[in-house]
């Protein structure tokens, strides 16, 4: 194990003091992303497992994913030590002799039973109040110390409430229970960390809500505009809208199917299944990868009498006309059967390239919203010049009207205007490039922290 940075050592000493003297404190650690919270947790676990190697002591570690890297980190540390032969990893447990650490997700932790000698929670800002209350009851029943490692988010999380409670206890003269390490302090004390923050700032934008909350530890408002006014102006490009590709420049496309044919059923109006079907509509957004930015260069607003004709029209645009190398699609509101049919029809009409369909899952929608925010704050998305077209006017209206909610659990949801025509949805699909979300989620801790 490598030596901890000074701020990590200070936190570890405070936790050990509470554990060894059976104080049963709840300690909150608000630390910039990647600054070494998980390494503190792992080294505390190594020490306590070693102290209780011959005792049936259990420690609890709650994190965002089952068998997450925290368990692998602990196992590596133990196997590198003198007692490597006593180390066992099975299921969600890491054991040294008779002592063990149990790794659970927040959902699993909500039903956990003690006793535990120490409870540690990473990504604590994502904990819901009910789960945190359950963990505090577990700790109280065990007389155990609880450590909550988190970052700022929307200022309304259960972690934030516990942090503020600790600050009030400190102001009343009680021992220190809250530690705050913004990126500037970590960069001063942790070799290599400053470069990682610089990369994150370039990727997210220093003024972006995500950078401010995750690195500067400044909570963002729970709700606000998806793209603030200053960033709306930054979206303006100086290139003209085009209706044909530039030779040698690859193009990508997003497809948002806003309506599929549906026949009216029998109802108050007396309509039966033979009533005429509504048409199908979709918005296709075309963009090119330019140096330092994604340039939106065309919109096609398509309408067809049925799904098959719509699929053929989309294929003509993204395949025959533009030859797009990457296509991502969404059919919000469509039933599973209708969406499946459309996927089949489009695959048959388009052939290549293959179409990646978004799942509309909460984490995926959140990643798209954060991707557009980052792109807007860093100038990585540019729209074609205003041309007076209905497509441009609707897109700008949707951008100006959309709001973002920084919800519990670290997710961002987008509230679209009531007249959602799919133009902003198409931009959201393109702003989060393939692989970017996974790379951000897997961002490692800095050198000494890993």
How far apart are the first and last residues' alpha carbons, in Å?
9 Å
Strand-residue proportion: 15-25%
The percent range for helix content is 25-40%
CATH class of the largest domain: Alpha Beta
Provide the residue-averaged pLDDT.
88
| Coarse morphology | elongated
- For the secondary structure, the number of strands is 17
Number of domains: 2
Which structural class matches the secondary elements? alpha/beta
Low confidence ranges:
264-276, 434-443, 446-450
CATH topology of the largest domain: Nucleotidyltransferase, domain 5
At CATH's second level, what is the architecture of the largest domain? 2-Layer Sandwich
- Order of strands, main sheet, comes to 3-4-5-2-6-7-1-8
Q: Describe the main β-sheet briefly.
A: 8 strands, mixed
Task: Describe this structure as you would to a colleague.
By secondary structure, the chain is of the alpha/beta class. The chain has two domains: 6-203, P-loop containing nucleotide triphosphate hydrolases (Rossmann fold), CATH 3.40.50; 223-265 and 276-441, Nucleotidyltransferase, domain 5 (2-Layer Sandwich), CATH 3.30.420.240. It is 40% helix and 21% strand. The chain has 16 helices and 17 strands. Helix 2 (37-51) packs across helix 3 and helix 11 crosses helix 12. The chain is elongated and about 75 Å long. The N and C termini lie close together (9 Å).
């Amino acid at each position: 194990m490598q030596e901890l940075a000074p701020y990590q050592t200070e936190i570890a000493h405070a936790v050990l003091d509470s554990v060894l003297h059976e104080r049963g404190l709840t300690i909150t650690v608000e630390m910039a992303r990647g600054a070494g919270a998980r390494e503190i947790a792992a080294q505390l676990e190594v020490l306590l497992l070693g102290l209780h190697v011959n005792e049936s002591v259990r420690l609890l570690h709650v994190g965002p994913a089952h068998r997450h890297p925290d368990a692998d980190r602990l196992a590596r540390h133990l196997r590198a030590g003198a007692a490597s032969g006593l180390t066992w990893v099975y299921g969600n447990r890491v054991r040294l002799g008779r002592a063990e650490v149990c790794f659970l997700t927040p959902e699993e932790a909500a039903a956990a039973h003690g006793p535990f000698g120490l409870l540690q929670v990473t990504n604590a800002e994502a904990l819901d109040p009910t789960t945190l209350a359950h963990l505090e009851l577990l700790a109280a029943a065990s007389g155990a110390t609880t450590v909550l490692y988190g970052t700022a988010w929307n200022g309304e999380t259960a972690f934030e409430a516990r942090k503020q409670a600790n600050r009030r206890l400190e102001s009343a003269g009680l021992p220190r229970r809250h530690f705050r390490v913004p990126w500037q302090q970590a960069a001063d004390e942790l070799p290599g960390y400053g470069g990682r923050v610089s990369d994150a700032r370039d990727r997210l934008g220093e003024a972006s809500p995500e950078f401010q909350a995750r690195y500067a530890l400044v909570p963002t408002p729970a709700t606000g505009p998806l793209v603030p006014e200053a960033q709306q102006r930054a979206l303006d490009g100086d290139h003209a809208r085009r209706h044909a590709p530039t030779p040698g420049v690859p193009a990508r496309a997003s497809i948002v199917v806003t309506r599929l044919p549906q026949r009216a059923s029998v109802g108050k109006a007396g309509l039966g299944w033979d009533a005429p079907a509504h048409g199908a509509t979709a918005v296709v957004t075309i963009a090119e990868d330019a140096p330092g930015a994604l340039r939106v260069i065309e919109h096609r607003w398509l309408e067809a009498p049925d799904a098959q004709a719509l699929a053929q029209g989309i294929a003509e645009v993204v395949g025959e006309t533009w030859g797009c190398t990457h296509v991502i699609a969404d059919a919000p509101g469509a039933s599973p059967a209708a969406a499946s049919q459309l996927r089949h029809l489009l695959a048959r009409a388009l052939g290549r390239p293959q179409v990646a369909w978004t799942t509309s899952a909460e984490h995926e929608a959140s990643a798209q919203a954060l991707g557009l925010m980052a792109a807007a704050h860093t100038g990585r998305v540019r729209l074609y010049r205003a041309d007076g077209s209905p497509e441009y006017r609707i897109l700008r209206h949707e951008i100006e009207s959309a709001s973002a909610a920084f919800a519990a659990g670290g997710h961002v949801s987008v509230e679209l205007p009531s007249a959602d025509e799919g133009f902003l949805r198409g931009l959201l699909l393109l702003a989060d490039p393939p692989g970017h979300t996974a790379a951000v989620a897997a961002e490692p801790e800095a050198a000494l922290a890993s």
